[in-house]
Amino acid sequence: MRSEDLFLVLNKEVIFDFKENPFWWPDYGSFWVVIGAVLTQNTKWENVEKSFLNLKNAGVQSLEDVANLSEPSLANLIKPSGFYNTKAKRLSMLCKNILDKFGSFEEFMKNVSRKWLISQKGLGFESVDSILCYACSRDIMVVDKYTFRIFEFLDFTFESYDEARQWLEDIDRKCVYKAVGSISDNELFARYHGLIVEFCKSHLKGAKFDDFALSLFSEISI
What we know:
By secondary structure, this protein is mostly helical. The protein contains 14 helices and two strands. Helix 1 (about 5-15) crosses helix 13 and helix 6 packs across helix 7. The chain starts with a helix and ends with a helix.
């Protein structure tokens, strides 16, 4: 099996309106992606949305607004996301570091490097690549726990996160374009990650895939 085989199978089965939201992640290209990448760690997205609502009701409209909140205030607003004291500390520090280093979110989008993001406390590879892909429009694939669940079932073993990411990114564009039309690599990788998440949300029950997923993966596994 190659990367395009997995993409095409998921693209056929997943029900998601990519015409309405071609990049899948809510608020693509905005500072909310940075906040979401931190808050979604070890919690459901529904809880992140509750935190977003609290932040918006408190008047947050920029990274500057987040940076200007006291940590206790920020922790209270993001409480639905869990681990709120730790996340508040890390999110506050990240926003301040972004502004200190780049001056604005717009400059951050254009100039941030993966190396710099990885150096920030509390950001692992998945969070970093989510920010790069969805906030900064970079051509990079996000590899999350759902992805590794699929790899585990297919008996695919990678020595590192980046090796798995490179396998996913090594996808036959011509095959993909026949199914979805000609799209940028950024949109392709955003969609690919979205397909994996949406499929697993529907067919991964606890630690096990349901019968539909097992049958589907058995057909494409070589």
